[in-house]
Design a protein that fits this description.
Elements (H helix, E strand, L loop, with lengths): L27 H12 L13 H10 L10 H14 L3 H15 L4 H15 L1 H15 L9
Helix pairs in contact: 1-2, 3-4, 3-5, 3-6, 4-6, 5-6
Length: 148
């Protein structure tokens, strides 16, 4: 057996994910309620496999981060939308967050378009244009940009 075949600490046999204590279980209830509120979905729709990435997002991102003092939900939305625009995550997360911002009333279409203008000057026109395209999709408006 050569060294590449030998199991070591990084190559131990067994499942890729082993169940252990859930250090974030105490955040589950608040996380589901906050995720439902922030994302504008029914609370019963917020379900995930324990230990999954989605489960961690519910507990840690929505159960903790979105409930921290110091920033309002509206301010957190603006920051989240800006970061998603920077990452050009308009396909899934950007659209979900833009729609949630509109549905919650935290941001109007005009305010979202102003966010795009702010992004243009600090992150560049292509990033801002992609973000505005996401706003167009969420509001049902058509733009000169085709879905790719």
């Amino acid at each position: 057996m050569n060294t590449h075949d030998a199991p070591g600490p990084d190559h131990a046999p067994g499942p890729a994910h082993t169940a252990g204590p859930d250090h974030f279980a105490h955040l589950a209830t608040a996380g589901r309620a906050t995720q439902a509120e922030v994302m504008r979905v029914p609370e019963e729709a917020v379900r995930s496999e324990p230990g999954s990435l989605s489960d961690l997002a519910t507990k840690v991102v929505f159960g903790d981060l979105w409930n921290r003092p110091g920033l309002s939900v509206r301010e957190r939305r603006i920051i989240t939308l800006t970061v998603l625009a920077m990452l050009q995550s308009h396909q899934i997360h950007g659209h979900l967050h833009v729609k949630a911002a509109l549905d919650s009333g935290d941001l109007t279409e005009a305010e979202l378009r102003e966010v795009a203008v702010q992004i243009a000057y600090y992150a560049g026109w292509p990033v801002a244009t992609s973000f505005e395209w996401t706003v167009d999709k969420a509001t049902g408006k058509t733009s000169g940009v085709e879905d790719l």
